[in-house]
Amino acid sequence: MHAAIVLLVLILTYVGMAAGRIAWLQVDRTGSALLAVIALLASGAMTLDDFDSDVDMPTIAFLFAMMIISAQFAESGFIDLCARTITDSRRGTAALLALTVAIGGGLSAILATDIVIIAIATLLIAGAQSRGFDPRPFVIALAAATNAGSAATLIGSPQNILIGSLGRLDLRSFLAICAVPALFSLVVILPSSGCSGRRASAGPCSRRRDPPQVTLHPLDPNPTIKGAVAMLALLVLFTMPLPRETGALIIAALLLANRKIISRTMIAGGLAIVAAGLVPVCDHRRPQPLWRCRRAARILNQ
Q1: How far apart are CA 110 and CA 69, in angstroms?
Q2: Torsion of the alpha carbons at 55, 58, 60 and 62, rounded to the nearest 10
Q3: pLDDT, average across residues 32-46
Q4: What is the three-class DSSP state of 112?
Q5: In the prediction, which pLDDT does 197 show?
Q6: CB 218: neighbour CB atoms within 10 A?
Q7: Domain spans of the chain, in order of start
Q8: What is the pLDDT of residue 86?
Q9: Biggest alpha carbon distance in the chain?
Q10: Is the pLDDT of residue 152 over 60?
Q11: How far apart are CA 26 and CA 20, in angstroms?
């Protein structure tokens, strides 16, 4: 009975994730993940002790800190500057797609992918539409490039953060191994998006729509430099014995203690909640729980 409940919750959760929201309710992906966990707890298919053993809290803490560090670059206007570099270029469609792939892949390798996409996508769509381009090829290129770029480092995506936390992997070794397939993927993305980009040539779009409303963040050098210093400090942490998640939270706390950016604009906990909610749902469908994976990682590291 419990297996059937877990399977049903899993299916409904991923339907909600794929759709983005529940049609008849104001519930987004974050809400879907929370409702899934609550449903498992209410049905007795999972207990709070199970939740604690399923969720790797160091990974969630590190992910939360990465969201704050990435938000520092977004609020300082640096990511807006990167987006304007793409949209303000007077070059052709192929060059704009190449810039989208390069900037999206590069930023997602060192910042939280979700922050990069959220900050760039709206500006990219508005900029493409203002120039009479079909924005869809650029959005496709951005989505593919950020996923490929995030695979290159241990801090680029929640999956890599989890792998690095469980295995206590070395940042440089991981980069040396994964950078090659990540770069290859970025090279493949360019001609793939270029095929669809032939429809993005100059001229009126087939279906003209008003550009989306965007909130512009003018570049502020001081917060940008502060974010860069925080990112360098984070990379140094990977060479020190201090637990990564503790050091990352300290850096995030120092960024929050500032006089220019309001804290609530930097705290984007939605991704951490989604990750914390999906892990126990998926973990209850696997024969080997996460704590055994942790034990295996520790044994391999010895």
Answers
A1: 10
A2: -160
A3: 79
A4: coil
A5: 55
A6: 8
A7: 1-46+270-302, 59-268
A8: 86
A9: 62
A10: yes
A11: 10
Q: Is the dihedral of CA 53, 58, 62, 68 positive or negative?
A: positive
* Coil vs helix vs strand at 21: strand
CA dist 175 and 66 (Å) reads 18
Residue that the structure tokens 């999972």 belong to:
46
Question: Per the structure block, which two tokens stand in for 31?
Answer: 């809400």
Does residue 145 register a pLDDT over 90? Answer: yes
Rounded to the nearest integer, the mean pLDDT of the chain is 77
Q: Cα dihedral angle (276, 281, 284, 290), rounded to 10 degrees?
A: -20
pLDDT tens by residue, 223-273: 899 999 999 998 888 878 778 888 888 998 888 887 777 666 666 555 556
Q: Angle at the Cα of 120 (from 153 to 180), degrees rounded to 5?
A: 25
At a CB cut-off of 8 Å and minimum separation 6, what does 272 contact?
A: 60, 63, 64, 67
pTM, 2 dp: 0.74
Which residues, at least 6 apart from 285, have a Cβ–Cβ distance to it below 8 Å? 6, 7, 10
Model pLDDT, residue 23: 67
Q: 17 vs 35, 104, 196, CA distance in Å?
A: 12, 23, 26
Residue 83's identity, in one-letter code, is A
Residue type, 116: V
